[in-house]
Amino acid sequence: MTAPRTTPADRPPLGLRERKKIKTRQAIRTATYALIEEQGYDATTIEQIADRAEVSPSTVFRYFPTKEDIVITDEWDPVMMAELRARPRDESWADVLRHVMRTALDLSLAEEPEVTRLRTRLGVEVPAVRARMMESMASTGRLLREALAERSGRDPGSLELRVFAMSVMGGLMEVSQYWAETGHRDDIRDLVDRALDVMEHGLPGGKP
Questions:
Q1: The pTM is what?
Q2: Is 66 left (phi over 0), alpha (psi -120 to 50) or beta?
């Protein structure tokens, strides 16, 4: 049975304070991406970001501990976990993950396609961004593990779930790297499908 899904109309309206936080957070991200596009990652400073976003440097740090965090932070983890929890219990792992990733990528590419491409390019070009991406993926992997544990009844700390969740995250990291290294020429959703095929069936033409 599929869990009930909520729509924006079902959710309580955000208060003024929360709306201001979201607006400030978005202003910082927008300023950062614009400056990086104009002058490059290394030349972009927190002070410049703060000035462009019309906030203080301390406000930038309150929302994002490092410049790398501004680059890699997105809003899709909660979306993916909600989608995963809403899938039918009898659906295969591969089909669940395909649906979840398609949903998140469709939203990301519809709302901020250039940011999505810039983020993956910086993950290839800037070692600090790539390292922070890997740390972030470890955190997302823990969320994935917990959601999968709820579906399966397994212990979220079990070796099998840990290996499975981090295999998925490692595969997605490689998809991101490959997409950027090849000039974003392919549809990333198709690349994710190919990666999930490898995780489900092994290498094409390989022996068991």
A1: 0.81
A2: beta
